[in-house]
Amino acid sequence: MFTGLIEEIGIVQSVQPIGNGKRFEISAKSILDDAKVDDSIAVNGCCLTAVKVTADGFSAEAVEESLKKTTLGNLKTGSKVNLERAMQLTDRLGGHFVLGHVDGVGTIQSIQQRSASWWVGVKLPESLMKYCIPVGSIAVDGISLTIAEIKNDMIYLSIIPHTWTHTILYLKKTGDAVNIETDMIGKYVEKFFHANKPEQTKPLTEARLKELGY
Fold first, then answer.
1. How does pLDDT run along the chain (214 residues), one tens digit per residue?
2. What gap in Å lies between CA 46 and CA 58, rounded to an integer?
3. In angstroms, what CA-CA distances link 61 with 7, 36, 37, 48, 50?
4. Helix (H) / strand (E) containing 107
5. Which residues touch 163 (CB under 8 Å, ≥6 apart)?
6. pTM for the predicted model, two decimal places
């Protein structure tokens, strides 16, 4: 589990095919302090397992299913990526609960620089909009953000300068794809609601009355 607070920006050093999956070698610094093989590391919001750790980076593999559901398949040598280690139980939860299980891919539709922030519009798949609420949490490329506004199939995010410059957001442009993970609380509420929803009764018609023996 993660918090959505990006620790550093890594750089993809190589991408190697492994069957229908891919192996990424990523250079990093600060997240390597206590990193070891089998640790979970979020790469652009995707929870990956470190299969190799060196003095200046780590390697992780993504299976075919992960490549289909995320933007990992678009990474190439030189790509910059958001990195975050899995949280510890003693950590402060400064962002929100992020599982690193990407729900889908959104598309940046607009970027507007304001006096003290950036206003970013992201189009989401219709299936994800039901989990979005104004002032609710969402992870975009692994970054814990707050939804400032919702219009149709678009969410709007107000990005502070620190977040803009300390993540790969500053590299984004209109049309770019981003990994989206909606707030898991909404998913559990939906499941609970449907699981406990009483069976819908049939309309009381003449045929229904006859069916009941009247």
1. 899 999 999 999 999 999 999 999 999 999 999 999 999 999 999 999 999 999 999 999 999 999 999 999 999 999 999 999 998 777 777 778 899 999 999 999 999 999 999 999 999 999 999 999 999 999 999 999 999 999 999 999 999 999 999 999 999 999 999 999 998 877 777 777 776 655 555 565 667 656 766 5
2. 15
3. 20, 15, 12, 7, 8
4. strand 104-113
5. 143, 145, 169
6. 0.86
